Amino acid sequence: MPLDPTIAVFDKHAQAYQQKYMDQARYAGGLNRCCELVGDEFGSLLDLGCGPGNVSRYILDQKPQLRAEAIDLSPAMVSLASINLPEAQCRVEDVRTLKNRKGSYDLILVGFCIPYLNRNEVAELIASAYQHLNSNGVLYLSFMEGDYDRSGFQLSSDGQDKAYIHYYPADEITTHLEASGFIIDTLLRTDFEKADGKKDVDVQIVAIKNPGSNHDTNDELC
Fold first, then answer.
1. What CA–CA distances, in Å, run from 160 to 9, 154, 157, 198, 220?
2. What are the residues facing 112 on neighbouring strands?
3. Residue ranges in the chain modelled with pLDDT below 70
4. What pLDDT score was predicted for residue 102?
5. Closest of 76, 63, 23, 68 to residue 44, by C-alpha
6. Dist CA 86 CA 65 (whole Å)
7. What does the pLDDT read at residue 120?
8. Are 166 and 3 within 8 A, CB to CB?
9. How many whole angstroms separate alpha carbon 81 and alpha carbon 91?
């Protein structure tokens, strides 16, 4: 799937996206659980596919001690994130290069990013996230649930543009998580009504890095 047209769509609709999705109360269950698991000690957060910074903003309002980084391929989204997350380092960067990063984090957020990645990219992202989390670190994932064969181009809310959306069954994502060494802590489903009146099921997964897993080679990255 060519990614550039999708980025152009997000650039064009960044303001509308911010207006519609900045409020993350719908996803409070999973995000609050992340805050509980991270605790109050000083730590670090990485937001992959950060959009306007909506997910990180929710977390940082509760955990202001976290050092935050946020990346997205859409320059317009990163510009908005820089405004909404003045305490964070925000930059234009491809989430698929996570494997090349140095350092580690206590919390990695992947809020509605994997619908724009194919199966191989999702599996690699999850494995890379494991390697970049500290012991007992937390990974948050959200996505639209559905059979993979539902994937295809979808129109924007104004009907003028389209982007390619991937659907994933929750059990496929949990299989990747467990294979990478994660323990599933929380899995939540929420109905979401789209502009055309149809409904999607949004899934939130909170997973914890298993410090006893033989997948742990994080020391090499620090």
1. 10, 10, 8, 18, 47
2. none
3. 1-4, 157-159, 194-197, 213-222
4. 86
5. 68
6. 13
7. 97
8. no
9. 9
Q: Residue 58 is encoded by which pair of tokens?
A: 């929710």
For the chain, the C-alpha Rg in angstroms (whole number) is 16
Say if strands 44-48 and 105-111 run parallel, antiparallel, or are unpaired.
parallel
Q: How confident is the model at residue 42, as a pLDDT? A: 78
- Determine if residue 53 is left, alpha or beta; phi over 0 gives left, psi from -120 to 50 gives alpha, anything else beta: left
pLDDT per residue as tens digits for the range 38-75: 988 879 999 999 999 999 999 999 999 999 999 999 99
Distance CA 220, CA 222 (A): 6
Decide: residue 92, CB within 10 A, 0-12 exposed, 13-18 middle, 19+ buried: middle
> Encoding tokens for residue 122?
């999702």
Separation of CA 176 from chain center: 15
Residues in Cβ contact with 61 at an 8 Å cutoff, skipping those fewer than 6 apart: none
Contact, 67 vs 44, CB < 8 A?
yes
Look up residue 156 and give its two tokens.
């924007």
| Residue 58: count of CB within 10 angstroms of its CB | 22
